[in-house]
Specification:
The radius of gyration is 34 Å and the shape is elongated. By secondary structure, the chain is mainly alpha-helical. The longest helix is centred in the middle third of the chain and has 35 residues. Among the domains are: 133 residues, no CATH class; 114 residues, Cytochrome c-like domain (Cytochrome Bc1 Complex, Chain D, domain 2), CATH 1.10.760; 27 residues, no CATH class. The chain contains 19 helices and two strands. Strands 1-2 form a two-stranded antiparallel ribbon.
Length: 455
């Protein structure tokens, strides 16, 4: 009985200590993962829409149109496919610019000297017509170009607004490898301490028995010719060793199982091979094409949408990267032509187009509702907040875990910017109506907007 009591006291206390320490380390790892999210939220949400307006037109409205329709071919301070736009309002009249932007070829056909000169100067590259734009839309674009062009140049800081270009929470959604390795080290050290203490207790117990005159059997010492099987058999009779071995294996398997279950369904780092090697590093990074030029649904609907190949053809009808392939068209661009059944020599389309089978990367569960427009248009969050430094990725991968915990951490730390935000202005109007006791219908809350049902 005394031996059992000694085993109990020497085993249970370390077991309780190790268990408490294990859960404490895991809990600390999960709780502290919110800190990076708090640090990244400031950089990720620092882009508010321009509130001031130019002398004519709404610059903030023009910014959205410019980023969606113009950035693939134009920049303010440098030539891309088309000329730099800074100071364009001083070089041409507003009436002329409206005609040119809506349909440049129609203006050239009239023999306008400025239109013909620009067309010839830029190798007769046809500017995409925008008949869907109203005169007011064009005026808003010009107001934005003037306002941005008048701003002093600022040092380049990357598209994401942070030093690493991410601006995103870096929560891994589970226990890190460092924490798991630390836990294993703690368990091993604790086991060694327990073994040493057991040896000390055993020695003291023998001395006590010898003092009382009780005969004590000496421990069997391994014989020189003893086989491995015999050694294991002898060790298996040591109940303390067996107990601690089972305890250690249970802790390790439990920690590993917890980690595996915690990361079930998390595809962070997933990077499938796509049918076309489209480089965001080139388009979004080097050429600085705004994300919403291709992903047009991000600012107005639930889905960001996959761009059609016709969007690619806005540039690749002319840009063919022949200088990199000894005069031949880039094989990746040829994949676009093949899918569209397009003949680059005759510049005509055939009757057998086929869709590109893109591999989806970011995929939320069906029960999770995420609306891009709420985050992009209302909250003003940049794409890098969730998708990481997209402008540095030759091939896109899933940057964030996109777990519920990751989203909740962001919602806990993100500051809501209601000033000058039309979405919150509408809510304030509704609150005022409720205070006055007036009728508030779903229509007042935006219930008849198309995107409420058709997203």
């Amino acid at each position: 009985m005394r031996s059992i009591s000694l085993i109990f006291r020497s085993v249970v206390k370390p077991f309780i200590f190790v268990s408490a320490l294990s859960f404490g380390v895991q809990g600390y790892a999960q709780d502290t993962s919110a800190a990076p999210a708090a640090a990244g939220s400031v950089a990720g949400s620092a882009t508010a829409a321009v509130a001031s307006t130019a002398s004519k037109g709404d610059a903030s409205a023009g910014a959205a149109i410019f980023k969606q329709k113009c950035t693939a071919c134009h920049a303010l301070n440098r030539t891309v496919v088309g000329p730099a736009l800074k100071g364009i309002s001083e070089r041409q009249s507003e009436e002329w610019l409206i005609k040119w932007i809506k349909n440049s070829q129609a203006l050239i056909a009239t023999g306008d000297p400025d239109a013909v000169k620009i067309f010839n100067e830029y190798n007769k590259v046809v500017m995409t017509p925008f008949p869907e734009l109203t005169d007011g839309d064009v005026v808003n674009i010009l107001a934005y170009v003037k306002e941005e062009g008048d701003k002093p140049a600022t040092p380049a800081a990357g598209a994401a607004g942070t030093a690493d270009g991410t601006g995103a929470a870096t929560d891994t959604g589970g226990v890190s490898n460092f924490m798991l390795g630390g836990l294993i080290v703690v368990v091993i050290i604790t086991l060694l301490v327990v073994l040493v203490l057991n040896r000390v207790i055993s020695t003291l117990h023998k001395l006590l028995l010898q003092k009382q005159g009780v005969p004590v059997e000496d421990e069997k010492v391994a014989e020189p010719g003893e086989k491995v099987y015999d050694k294991l058999k002898r060790l298996s009779k040591n109940k303390k060793l067996v107990f601690f071995t089972i305890l250690l294996v249970s802790i390790l398997l439990g920690s590993w199982s917890w980690r595996m279950m915690w990361n079930t369904g998390v595809h962070e780092g997933y990077q499938p091979e796509q049918p076309i090697k489209y480089s965001h590093q080139l388009h979004a990074g080097t050429l600085k094409i705004n994300c919403q030029y291709c992903h047009t649904g991000a600012y107005k609907s639930k889905n960001a949408s996959i761009p059609s190949l016709n969007v690619c053809m806005n540039c690749h009808n002319y840009v063919q990267a022949t200088e990199k392939y000894n005069g031949e068209i880039s094989p990746e661009i040829m994949k676009i032509y093949k899918a569209l059944d397009y003949d680059p020599d005759t510049k005509k389309y055939g009757n057998d187009p086929k869709p590109i089978q893109w591999v989806r990367i970011h995929n939320l569960p069906d029960f999770a509702y995420f609306n891009h427009s709420q985050h992009v248009s209302v909250a003003g969050i940049e794409c890098q907040k969730c998708h990481g430094p997209i402008q540095t990725m030759p091939e896109v991968y899933q940057y964030a875990p996109l777990t519920m915990k990751w989203c909740i951490n962001c919602h806990r730390t993100m500051e809501v910017n209601a000033k000058g935000n039309g979405y919150y202005d509408k809510l304030e109007e509704v609150h005022d109506l409720l205070k006055q006791g007036k009728k508030v219908t779903p229509a007042v809350l935006g219930g008849i907007e198309c995107g409420k049902c058709h997203y």
